[in-house]
Design a protein that fits this description.
The complex is a heterodimer. Chain A is of the alpha+beta class. Chain A is built from ten helices and 17 strands. In chain A, the strands form three sheets. A six-stranded antiparallel β-sheet of chain A has the order 3-2-1-4-5-6. The radius of gyration of chain A is 24 Å and the shape is globular. The termini of chain A are far apart. By secondary structure, chain B is α+β, with helices and mostly antiparallel strands. Chain B is built from nine helices and 23 strands. In chain B, strands 1, 2, 3, 4, 5, 6 and 7 form a seven-stranded mixed β-sheet that branches. In chain B, helix 1 runs parallel beside helix 2. Classes of the chains: A alpha+beta, B alpha+beta.
């Protein structure tokens, strides 16, 4: 049975069973992937799945049933009845809502790979060539561990009993390479990717140079004295922190008591160098979309302007609770970024003078306490002396507090980068973080 | 009744092998999930989920191809199998054999199927423990509780004639308490996973009081904790979940995929000293009722107890069918996957350092200055370089052989073999503790374990 027919039948059955308010979300997902090891094809994947999420609203509460599988008519009564049972058990004091639909921004241009160009290239040959060129580029290359090409296509349909009917399609493609480099006994590794949104991504050397330079950059790391340091956080490191900081701006986090920003609208929560924007209309953005997870129109917003909190991020439920209007952020965050400054990256280093450049951060799975904002992560980077990079450092821990970090950003560079994601940042100077090394 | 009849399974496997290949497998799944979540004594979420899907895989020497679908009609399964076969280009080599049911003793019998218990009953339980948590301290400002139940019916059938069916039940209970004292807000969480049913509530490792009131006490205590000092120092890791250190420092690096692809510091080290002579470690999929235990792995291979390291000498890798083949070795039943949407690879199950001889009090008393990591949060590893890290959820400074002030925000980093060689004391208080592990074949239930151990030096990162 096709999705439209199933959704229609589900809609009718819900009405027959007396369900007055309901919402149906259908998602179809396809992916294709190739992996090469040692120049040979190791794995090919070709996958598809579909999912139906049925939600019932009763007395302001929501209950749901999610089904992944064949769209069989005989399952419909079970889907509806289970969702009804679930909603009857909810005792959330905050009301939830469905949205009836409205005006949406049109003709958006989200990220798309250059499909026409992609169809012209032999992907296996592309990956084989990348591997060969990596070995050719440097004698320090120890191994090309694997190369990978992947495509994803996804379609989402959202309809409800109030008349909402929206849909979207997205597609992605990427190639990545994972290598190790070796100098004497020291081994380092790196993974880099391209997403074929730009013609230079089809230039093999572009990906090869990125991954080899990134890996070699980590070699000959020295130890240093643990302590408090002024740091430059490279845009990639800032971006990974911003992805976590984003959750602090959601009104739901206020309800969950996992943010200190609940009563801070209009107040200074960061240095005046910090402006944070959410832009769901950005051309080429990974999170460019006219509606959020409940079909509400998304909106461009200045979340933080020169350090002052302008708004939290609301959905229909939290907007109702806090007597605001939804900002189109149910289960959705548009392209989210720290606004760039005017200084170049080299200028930022010169301004810092003495300190540490943190190029990458990891350990986010368990490294952040969202209640206190304390974090303790793992960093890679360089020592900076007299405003220039002096030498590589061996891995170190980086400790601080997310709220304090926002206050301690003393300058922002102009090298804004999204690193093939929906969250972006430029490099910044942070007055003080605690770093520990052996 | 089987998830798929044998005739169709045979047809699918034969279709998948129609262009060649030397092995084919079909993995079928029908899984029920339920989530009940309370926060601040309100039932915030009751969610149900049903997942049905199939994964079809073919090997041809050192190549594999995979496709999954959740449209399980005969027509579509044969279409997907045909698509899979198109990635293979060789003369047809085999046909599927007659299926033989895999017989096994159920290592994780369920006493009370969680789906036989009403949601209301579960909610009442969660309300009860939530209420107890609030009552235990006036400093508690928020309590949330969660009960997840999972029932997975799976079938693995392959061209070698394996027909392995099982029903796997898992439960997870979580309590999260936030305390506020003088403007300082801290959180503590207890979470228990088990391959058990609703009886999990009666089988918590330290009992329900420790799970509920103990968590509250830890949240309150953390508001008094100081920032952790940083530097290089001895680290004592408590028993049970302290086994995360071995999981990250060594376990992932012994998985066949990274060994076969030369992406592990443990490559070419079989038979060599890779840890202190005090360290003997196992991965044991046969521990009755443990979270990582399986009657057979996700490729239908009977599971086993694997000696990984003996007195510091590397003895075994974790092997699945495909990457074991690349190493010229047979699978040792370590192939695992979160669900049908993942290709299985070798992963850990119940992984632990075996008990030693030292008394815990002697380990502490012999440490002049260091960190006692009583509870860990979890970590991650780069198997290529051996660099790993993990976070400490509850730590204490050890000074002059005594456990002193509680500290917070500690992060430990190190390099696998280097740290394993620095284990200089191994206690006699062995325990295992359940958790969840995420990697390239998804999130799977596991157990970590160890006695109390001391590492003579590790880099400790803190906010002091």
């Amino acid at each position: 049975m096709n999705a439209d027919d199933f959704i229609e039948k589900l809609h009718k059955e819900a009405v027959c069973l007396g369900v007055k308010e309901f919402q149906i979300s259908y998602s179809y997902y396809e992916n294709y992937g190739l992996s090469l090891v040692d120049g040979k094809l190791e794995k090919v994947e070709n996958n598809q799945e579909q999912m139906i999420k049925f939600m019932v609203r009763h007395n302001g509460k929501l209950g749901q049933f999610v089904y992944e599988g064949d769209l069989k008519l005989e399952l419909i009564p079970m889907i509806v009845k289970t969702a009804q049972e679930n909603v009857s058990l909810i005792s959330d004091e905050d009301d939830s809502f469905f949205y009836a639909g409205g005006e949406y921004v049109k003709d958006l241009k989200p990220y798309q790979p250059l499909w026409d160009k992609l169809q012209e290239i032999d992907k296996i040959d592309f990956l084989k060539q990348v591997e060969k060129l990596v070995y050719d580029k440097s004698s320090l290359v120890n191994k090309v561990i694997s190369t990978h090409y992947g495509e994803v296509k996804n379609e989402v349909i959202l309809r409800n009993s109030l008349g909402l009917n929206v849909s979207k399609k997205l597609s992605r493609a990427s190639a990545s390479v994972h290598i190790s480099v070796k100098n004497d006994d020291e081994i380092k590794s790196a993974v880099e990717m391209v997403d074929f949104s730009d013609m230079q991504h089809f230039n093999l050397q572009y990906l090869v140079d990125k991954v080899v330079d990134t890996a070699i950059n980590k070699l000959k790391g020295r130890e240093f004295q643990s302590g408090k340091y002024k740091v430059v956080l490279k845009n990639k490191a800032v971006k990974s922190l911003l992805s976590v900081i984003a959750s602090l701006f959601f009104a739901q986090s206020v309800i969950d008591k996992k943010t200190k920003f609940g009563d801070k609208i209009g107040q200074k929560i960061a240095s005046d160098k910090v402006s944070i924007i959410e832009n769901p209309f950005m051309e080429g953005g990974y999170a460019t979309c006219a509606f959020d997870g409940e079909g509400y129109p998304t909106s461009y917003k200045l979340v933080v302007e020169k350090g002052v909190l302008q708004t939290l991020l609301y959905d229909l439920k939290t907007a109702n609770k806090f007597e605001k209007v939804s900002t189109g952020n149910f289960d959705f965050l548009g392209n989210f970024y720290l606004e760039k400054g005017s200084l170049s990256f080299d200028g930022l280093l010169r301004e810092m003078g003495e300190g540490i450049l943190i190029e990458e951060l990891s350990g986010f799975n368990v490294g952040i306490d969202k209640v206190s904002g304390d974090f303790s992560l793992v960093g890679n980077g360089k020592k900076v002396e007299a405003g220039t990079i002096a030498y590589s450092l061996s891995p170190f821990t980086v400790s601080g507090n997310l709220y304090q970090l926002l206050m301690d950003i003393s300058n922002v560079a102009n090298d804004l980068d999204f690193y093939y994601s929906s969250c972006g940042a430029p490099s910044v100077i942070v007055n003080e973080l605690v770093l520990a090394n052996s | 009744m089987s998830l798929i009849d044998k005739k169709l399974a045979s047809e699918v496997i034969d279709m998948a092998l129609s262009s060649g290949g030397d092995f084919a497998e079909i993995f079928v799944e029908n899984s029920l999930y339920e989530r009940i979540y309370l926060a601040e004594k309100q039932v915030k979420d009751v969610a149900s989920r049903l997942v049905c899907g199939v994964g079809i895989r073919v090997f041809c020497e050192d190549f594999q191809t995979y496709a999954y679908t959740n449209v399980m009609t005969r027509e579509n399964l044969l279409k997907v199998a045909c698509q899979v076969s198109k990635s293979i280009k060789s003369e047809k080599q085999i046909q599927s054999m007659d299926f033989r049911n895999l017989e096994f003793e159920n290592l994780s019998p369920v006493q009370v199927n969680p789906f036989d218990v009403s949601k209301k009953h579960k909610i009442d339980f969660l309300q009860n423990i939530s209420g107890r948590a609030y009552t235990h301290s006036q400093l508690i400002e928020k309590v949330s509780t969660l009960l997840n139940s999972k029932q997975r019916e799976i079938l693995v059938a392959n061209s070698e004639g394996t027909w392995a069916e099982d029903t796997r039940v898992y439960s997870t209970l979580m309590l999260d308490a936030q305390a506020r004292r003088d403007g300082i807000c801290e959180q503590a969480m207890s979470i228990h996973h088990a391959s058990q049913g609703f009886e999990i509530l009666d089988k918590l490792p330290y009992g329900l009081y420790d799970f509920v009131e103990g968590t509250v006490d830890r949240a309150v205590a953390k508001t008094y904790a100081k920032n952790c000092p940083n530097g290089v120092m001895p680290v004592i890791l408590a028993n049970g979940f302290g086994g995360v250190i071995f999981h990250e420092a060594c376990g992932h690096s012994l998985e066949a995929r990274v060994i076969a692809n030369n992406a592990s510091e443990f490559c070419n080290k079989m038979g060599e000293q890779v840890a202190s002579p005090l360290v003997t470690a196992y991965d044991d999929s046969l521990i009755a009722g443990a979270n990582g235990t399986l009657n057979f792995d996700d490729e239908g291979t009977p599971t086993q107890r694997r000696l990984l390291i003996e007195n510091g000498i590397l003895k075994n890798y974790l092997l699945d069918k495909f990457y074991g083949r690349k190493l010229g070795l047979e699978s040792n039943g370590a192939g695992r996957r979160e669900d049908y949407t993942y290709v299985p690879v070798s992963r850990m199950s119940n992984t632990f350092i075996a008990g030693g001889k030292s008394k815990v009090e002697d380990i502490i008393a012999s440490t002049e200055y260091g960190l006692y990591a009583k509870r860990l949060s979890g970590g991650s590893v780069n198997t290529v370089t051996g660099e790993f890290n993990f976070a400490v959820a509850e730590g204490y400074v050890v000074r002059n052989g005594k456990i002193c002030e509680q500290v917070k925000g500690a992060r430990l980093i190190g390099k696998g073999i280097d740290v394993l060689k620095k284990i200089d004391m191994v206690g006699n208080d062995f325990e295992i503790s359940a958790g969840s592990c995420g990697a390239c074949s998804g999130h799977i239930p596991v157990t970590v374990g160890q006695p109390t151990i001391r590492v003579s030096e590790m880099t400790v990162g803190g906010n002091k």
